């Protein structure tokens, strides 16, 4: 069982008799006698399931004046005029199926805006309901996310080392890969060569000379022999003096 829900209520609207449309340019409210409306009453926009009906009722008794079934918006059942946002042309129908076109007007622009929003929201909901019913009847296409035969994937992972630097590890089997992790960012640093050692000074030792009598650095062997000869001369001079005494 479907219930009737009220979408919008406006306590005062104006109904006008309108002349036939002269051309395809659309209806114009300026062509109506706006100062003398044909009828004044209450408007209710109601929905029953997906059906939407605009009802014109007496403000005091609530008696029905006319019904305007709306199957789509914008459409033939209700159409905005070309020269004002407060006026519409509606198609009313009686119980025998006869229809007539009347002018509908509001005293305030906010009232006509509310009618626009209510109609748009209703038919948006109808469209969503149709989509849901369509998905229930049509089988859903299931996605096959499995691996096909011979299909592989490659995953790049960022690995943080103990020193805080990041390296990348690639998983997956690639032809020709050695399995060695790539070097850290920044490339291979060049290692500086060790400092050159000072050349060692080699002292040649004369045969038969003990370490105690090794000449000091900077003296040559010739100096050693000259010193030895000087000592011998002093010793001979001393012996000579002793003989003369």
Automatic annotation (TrEMBL):
Recorded GO CC terms: clathrin vesicle coat
Top-level division of the source organism's lineage: Eukaryota
Q: Where is the composition biased (Low complexity)?
A: 226-245
**Swiss-Prot/TrEMBL keywords:** Endocytosis, Protein transport, Transport
Per the UniProt entry, what is one GO biological process?
endocytosis
Q: Where is this region: Disordered?
A: 157-245
Q: Where is the composition biased (Pro residues)?
A: 181-197
Q: Where is the NECAP PHear domain?
A: 3-157
Quote the Gene3D superfamilies the UniProt record gives.
Pleckstrin-homology domain (PH domain)/Phosphotyrosine-binding domain (PTB)
Cell membrane is among the record's keywords: no
Pfam annotation, one family? DUF1681
Q: Which family does it belong to?
A: Belongs to the NECAP family.
Q: Kindly provide the name given to this protein in its UniProt entry.
A: NECAP PHear domain-containing protein
The species is Drosophila ananassae (Fruit fly)
């Amino acid at each position: 069982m479907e219930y009737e829900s009220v979408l919008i209520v406006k306590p005062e609207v104006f109904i006008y008799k309108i002349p036939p449309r002269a051309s395809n340019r659309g209806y114009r409210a300026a062509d109506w006698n706006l100062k003398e409306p044909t009828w004044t009453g209450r408007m209710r926009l109601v929905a029953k399931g997906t059906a939407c009906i605009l009802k014109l009722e007496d403000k005091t008794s609530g008696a029905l004046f006319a019904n305007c079934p709306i199957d789509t918006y914008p459409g033939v059942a209700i159409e905005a005029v070309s020269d004002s946002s407060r006026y519409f042309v509606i198609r009313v129908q009686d119980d025998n199926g006869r229809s007539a076109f009347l002018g509908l007007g509001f005293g305030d622009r906010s009232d006509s805006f509310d009618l626009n929003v209510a109609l748009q929201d209703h038919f948006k909901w109808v469209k969503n309901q149709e989509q849901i019913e369509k998905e229930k009847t049509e089988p859903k296409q299931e996605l096959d996310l499995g691996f096909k035969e011979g299909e592989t994937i490659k995953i790049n992972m960022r690995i943080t080392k103990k020193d805080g630097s990041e390296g990348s590890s690639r998983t997956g089997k690639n032809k020709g890969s050695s399995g060695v992790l790539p070097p850290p960012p920044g490339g291979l640093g060049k290692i500086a060569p060790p400092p050159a050692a000072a050349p060692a000074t080699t002292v040649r030792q004369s045969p038969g000379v003990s370490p105690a009598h090794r000449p000091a650095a900077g003296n040559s062997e010739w100096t050693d022999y000259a010193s030895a000869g000087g000592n011998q001369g002093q010793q001979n001079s001393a012996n000579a003096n002793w003989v003369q005494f």
